[in-house]
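Sat 14:20. Reprocessing the chain from the morning session after the first attempt stalled halfway. Input below, unchanged.
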Amino acid sequence: MDTKLQAEITRLDTLKNLHQREYLYNIEQVEGKIEQNKYQIERTESPLKRDILTKQRVYYKQEISSLDSTIEKLTHTIDEKINGLKIVLEEWEVKSKKEKESLEYNIEKLRDLIDQGNTNDVFEMFNSVVNSLEIIKREFDKK
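Finished this time. C-alpha cells:
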C-alpha cells in the first residue's frame, strides 16, 4: 500500500510541476502580446485604433489574472491531496510498525476481531497471530 501511496504522491507532484510550467509558458505568451500591443498603441495615430488596442490590453491583463487564480486554486487543490495522502501514509506506517513490534497491539486486534465475530476477518486474525509469534520469537532470541 505504501508503494501505491508514494506513486500517487509522486504523480500528483509531477502533475503540479507540469501545470506550473504550463502556467509560466502561458504567462510569457500573454506578456509578449501585451508588449506587442503596447508598441502598437505607441505607434498608432488613430484614436479609434488606440481605443481598440487599449481594450485589448485590458483583456490581456484579465487573462493574466485568470491564469493566476487558476494556478493558485489548482496548486492548492493538489497540495491538499498530497498532504492528505502523506497523512494516510504516515498512519499506515505507524499501524504497520505496531503490527510488527507491539504484542499488545496484536492481542487487542485479535480480541476486537473475535468480538466482531465476522468470519471474513479470519485471515486478518492469522496475520495478527503470526506477527505476535514473530515478536515473541525475537524476544526469545535476544535472551
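The domain at 2-99 is CATH 1.10.287 (Helix Hairpins).
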